[in-house]
Amino acid sequence: xxxxxxxxxxxxxxxxxxxxxxxxxxxxxxxxxxxxxxxxxxxxxxxxxxxxxxxxxxxxxxxxxxxxxxxxxxxxxxxxxxxxxxxxxxxxxxxxxxxxxxxxxxxxxxxxxxxxxxxxxxxxxxxxxxxxxxxxxxxxxxxxxxxxxxxxxxxxxxxxxxxxxxxxxxxxxxxxxxxxxxxxxxxxxxxxxxxxxxxxxxxxxxxxxxxxxxxxxxxxxxxxxxxxxxxxxxxxxxxxxxxxxxxxxxxxxxxxxxxxxxxxxxxxxxxxxxxxxxxxxxxxxxxxxxxxxxxxxxxxxxxxxxxxxxxxxxxxxxxxxxxxxxxx
Length: 328
Fold this sequence. Notes:
This protein is of the alpha/beta class and about 325 residues long. It is built from twelve helices and 13 strands. Catalyzes the conversion of dihydroorotate to orotate with quinone as electron acceptor.
């Protein structure tokens, strides 16, 4: 990414990279929750946590990029090593722990990016802001952290995702319970609706929820008028791993599993939520997307857009272009 950054800082080099990796076709364009996406393939949160590589990711042809997870204060995250590959299963295990530069630094970086785009007159890539709470913030005060991030990033992102589903911040997933969630989402919507042009507000959920919990999410999404859902985050389940990867994962220890082993469950969650919401709430699908066929499976299950992350690591920089080509 740093090598790409050096190259893309030169206009002609960025143009060459874009010509190689971006697929432009009006048939790929989609309007979802009032935003115009140049294509349906995005990069999920957790890769560009600090909005440091937007220029480069745009050159690689992504339709949108979700930055973060961003917390009010900068935090170093969990001890290293904290990111592990399971190549036999095309999977990753991470326990990063919301390492990021803090909302002030990220907001400034996004403002510079936005202003550069305005000055150049170029179409701006859609940017999502994934927000979370600091590790030291108790759950009863979590809503305050989400409010700080929402308010500070409001003018520099195109949509928001509330992340209460990472398994790597102690107690965070407890916030997926209906009453805790209602408190956070209602407060953010209150601020949002007070703005001249409210921003789409989405919720990212874990693939480990029961149908009963997913029903609660669907009900709450309708109640607080969420713009969409992101399904799904990483899983704590290891049952789909091959025996060699399972043994390796036991050595690795705690963390969220992503990639091919979560693909089927993620699609199930997308399909279930699409049915429960009557297709009225757009879903961004994430989990085990490596190819155009994987993306089509998610779209046919009821998703409006897809996000890659682990696929980007294993498939390389052509992933967005290849998926778009296969979708066409």
